UniProtKB/TrEMBL annotation:
Organism field: Streptomyces laculatispora
Gene3D superfamilies: Macrophage Migration Inhibitory Factor (3.30.429.10)
Gene Ontology MF, one: isomerase activity
Pfam families: CHMI (PF02962)
Keyword rRNA processing: no
InterPro entries for this protein: 5-COMe_2-OHmuconate_Isoase (IPR004220), Tautomerase/MIF_sf (IPR014347)
Protein name as catalogued: Isomerase
UniProt-listed PANTHER family: 4-HYDROXYPHENYLACETATE CATABOLISM PROTEIN
Keywords linked to the UniProt accession: Isomerase
Length: 116
């Protein structure tokens, strides 16, 4: 915990600094929700096909999901989500002809969550 998933359009392979983003993301999350950096786990999943609205070309998506153990206030989760989006924008280089659609959400893990 936290469990972080980053889904991103394949067009961003060359312009998205994954390692730099994760390296900055983990301390941000740890400080915001009072956890340890060592507890942060991030996986990046490349999505081969994405379509935004009625524009099949020229758009790319990054969506970040942060799942936490229950107990954080809605305000803390909203603050974290906003901070993550600001951080993300600094780790993707603009690409000519490509419109970025960035989104994030912070949610509680299901009570059945276990780790070993």
């Amino acid at each position: 915990m936290p469990q972080i998933t980053v889904d991103y359009s394949s067009q961003l392979d060359e312009s998205f600094d994954f390692h730099g983003f994760a390296g900055a993301l983990h301390p941000l999350i740890a400080e915001t929700v009072t956890t340890k950096i060592a507890a942060c786990k991030t996986r990046f999943r490349e999505v081969a096909g994405t379509v935004v609205a009625d524009s099949p070309d020229g758009s790319a998506i990054v969506h970040i999901e942060i799942a936490l153990l229950a107990g954080r206030t809605p305000e803390i989760k909203a603050q974290l989500t906003e901070s993550v989006l600001e951080l993300l924008a600094g780790h993707i280089r603009p690409t000519d002809g490509l419109t970025l659609h960035l989104s994030a959400e912070t949610r509680d893990l299901d009570p059945s969550y276990r780790k070993s």
